[in-house]
Design goal:
Elements lengths: L13 H32 L3 H20 L6 H22 L4 H5 L4 H36 L5 H37 L9 H18 L3 E8 L2 H8 L1 H18 L5 E4 L4 E6 L4 H17 L2 E3 L2 E3 L3 E8 L6 H17 L5 E2 L1
Parallel strand pairs: 6-7
Antiparallel strand pairs: 1-3, 1-6, 2-3, 4-5
Length: about 350
Amino acid sequence: MPMPQHNVYYAQSPELEDNNRRAILRIILWIIVVLGLILCGLNLHHGSVTVAWLEFGVVLFCSVFLYNLKRTSKLKLWIATLLMLVFVVVLYGMQIRALSAGSYYWVLVMPPLSLLLLGLHWGSWLSLLFGIGGMMQMLYTQSTQLPQFNLSLSNNALFSYLTIWAVSHVYEYKRSYVVQQLQKLASVDPLTGLYNRRQLTAVFEHCFTAHRQSGYPFGMLLLDVDHFKNINDVYGHDVGDQMLTHLACLMKANRRHDDWVFRVGGEEFCLLVAQSDKSQLRQMAERLRLDVEQHPGIYDGQQCPVTVSIGIATWPEDGSTFASLYQQADRRLYQAKNSGRNTVVA
């Protein structure tokens, strides 16, 4: 069963991206509806009936889009269709107005709008196609409707479009990078580099969806450092932090490719173990407990021994939701603590 890569999972948040796009789209669609109705009325007043009907068609499409905005699962298809409709109106306006300044200016709106609504990949390609279409329309209109070919007009139009396309591309790239870094900061524990409690719930939902389809169980291991307060008191908080980092390295070394490691509290860690039954989880927990016991941290030339207690819960037997599974693993962790520590309770 394929799982997302650990080093890029925080960057993949389609639900968040879609929610952001829907919020922006709601504003843009209302603007297009209001502006389209105004332009439709003005074009009817000036006798441009065809343009008015095209603009009214865009308004109708935007109205239907607004109605379906919250529930549609094909958001990018709707967006691409909207941009194509707007571009057709722009091209027709360029044709009938013989490249008046007002008709060409609308072409320059396409790159930032495409990149904003479709993202870096699809927005870049679609806006590039819009630029090619706009230039072809300009050359055709010059050759058929203007008395002579204006090379300066074509050069200026091409330069201005490429400039706006490049600036929009750079802006969207930087925006995507900043969003990715913010998501990383919000999802990763800064001390150990492990995922944090916030990301644990998101990854659990992913595992829940994947394993519900396959029907195969997966497990949760909750791990707590024994007598961690004593480590801080005897060796100092700096050594305590190094101990947590050392423990995080041991946990990452013991996990498989499809498993996930989290720091969920001060000295409390969690492992989500994919496709594992009770006996496999027990073996992994015992192996991890023994590895921690046999590899004490070494700080300033002296050893700092450490042990851990581990509680195990299995989905779906011990809980079908995140809260119930975590509660069961936490209960067994405290049983391990009360049983003398340095032990595993399944």
